[in-house]
């Protein structure tokens, strides 16, 4: 299930997405919480800034851990776990996402239809995150094709979606889920700095590459 994450870094606040994977842990991108000194998770939200939305629950994080091989300069191993300070109240609106099984470790998902969701910018001209949760249907492409466009940045631990039609992740969507066949295949990691609507692929951390690390933490 999609969550919103507010991160305080020094005197600045940043916004990311994430996904609830149990009643006490949230999966997100390492670059979202790197350097953070306070983290709040918003669950069951549609209108992310609403103080009166009946389904929305806000829980502070008690801890967060970045992947030990997270490399900010190369944007590799862009994965982190957030531990909630209290269990999330599981309900119809707040429930954990399904993760792939280890049997799917060799599945590239290339050619599959997927869904990206989040409160990120809804256009290149937008100046603030979307007030409501949005989603877009996308197609997973091969890492080979993605690497041609990202000039070798894509690793086996990444997964990419086509930017056809200007559809993809945008600023503010980082850390959120790419869902394929009702399970989370990716974590929004990076795109092209020139804009979200120019048809470039979106790059994600490949969840199947990090299942052992997730279990161990």
From TrEMBL:
Keywords: Disulfide bond, Glycoprotein, Hydrolase, Protease, Serine protease, Signal
Signal sequence residues: none
Full protein name: Trypsin
Organism: Oryctes borbonicus
Localization annotation: Secreted, Extracellular space
Any one GO molecular function term: serine-type endopeptidase activity
GO BP annotations listed: proteolysis
Main location as per UniProt: secreted
Transmembrane segments: none
Peptidase S1 domain ranges (all copies): 1-217
InterPro entries: Peptidase_S1, Peptidase_S1_PA, Peptidase_S1_PA_chymotrypsin, Peptidase_S1A, Trypsin_dom, TRYPSIN_HIS, TRYPSIN_SER
Pfam families referenced in this protein's UniProt entry, alphabetically: Trypsin
Family note: Belongs to the peptidase S1 family. CLIP subfamily.
Cellular component, GO annotation: extracellular region
């Amino acid at each position: 299930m999609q969550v919103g994450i507010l991160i305080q870094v020094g005197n600045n606040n940043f916004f990311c997405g994430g996904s609830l994977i149990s009643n006490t842990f949230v999966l997100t991108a390492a670059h979202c919480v790197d350097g953070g000194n306070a983290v709040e998770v918003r669950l069951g939200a549609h209108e992310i800034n609403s103080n009166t939305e009946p389904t929305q629950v806000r829980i502070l994080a008690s801890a967060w851990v970045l992947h030990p091989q997270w490399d900010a300069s190369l944007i590799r191993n862009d994965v982190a776990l957030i531990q909630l300070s209290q269990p999330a109240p599981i309900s119809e609106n707040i429930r954990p996402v399904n993760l792939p099984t280890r049997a799917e470790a060799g599945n590239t998902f290339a050619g599959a239809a997927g869904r990206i969701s989040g409160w990120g910018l809804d256009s290149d001209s937008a100046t603030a995150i979307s007030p409501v949760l949005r989603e877009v249907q996308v197609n997973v492409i091969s890492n080979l094709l993605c690497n041609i466009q990202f000039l070798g940045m894509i690793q086996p631990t990444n997964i990419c979606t086509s930017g056809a039609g200007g559809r993809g992740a945008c600023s503010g969507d980082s850390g959120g889920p790419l869902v394929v066949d009702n399970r989370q295949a990716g974590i929004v990691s990076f795109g092209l700095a020139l804009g979200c609507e120019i048809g470039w692929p979106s790059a994600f951390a490949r969840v199947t590459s990090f299942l052992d690390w997730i279990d161990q933490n």
